[in-house]
Amino acid sequence: RKETEMPYLAWSDELDTKIPELDAQHRVMIDHVNAVREAAASGNAASLQEAMQHLIDCVRRHFDFEEKVLESIDFAGRREHQGVHDDILKQLREYRDRMASASSAEAEELADTLGPWVVEHIRHDDLDFGPTVREWLRDAAPPDDPFRKLVGDN
């Protein structure tokens, strides 16, 4: 990619959950989506598989963190949110497997769906619980709770 070329997907303030660790993870996820898109455009199947696996690993770690957060605050929609995570990971693995035998054009089409998915996940899943986490930190979390360090003490 040329240095002057814009990335496929870029961070924007509308994706900010105001939870520093989550936002940092979201930024890394966006970087991985861009890497998948670049690998798909390159036509290099091995690079594409590697980039997809890195994305899957990143998303899995992110979901593990989120689920720990939701459990800590006893979030009412936690089980439903975990189900969404399971479905997303399954879909990402299916995409990886489909990309392994796809033509370059098909791989690019699949990669192009990842950007909107990440944005929608952040907007409609993660932003939903951001206020609950911040409220818990402000009103319910003990001052010495190690969880404060994970999400930032806002």
Using DSSP, what is the number of strands? 0
Shape: elongated
Number of helices: 6
Mean pLDDT: 84
- What is the CA–CA distance across the termini? 37 Å
Give the fraction of residues assigned to helices: over 70%
Can you walk through the features of this model?
With 154 residues, this protein is mainly α. It has six helices and no strands. Helix 1 packs antiparallel against helix 2 and helix 3 runs antiparallel to helix 4. The longest helix has 28 residues, at 45-72. The termini are far apart.
Topology:
Blueprint: H1 20-42, H2 45-72, H3 78-101, H4 104-112, H5 114-139, H6 147-151
Helix pairs in contact: 1-2, 1-4, 1-5, 2-3, 3-4
Can you tag this structure with a few keywords?
154 residues, mainly alpha, 6 helices, 0% strand
Structure, briefly:
This protein is mainly alpha-helical and 154 residues long.
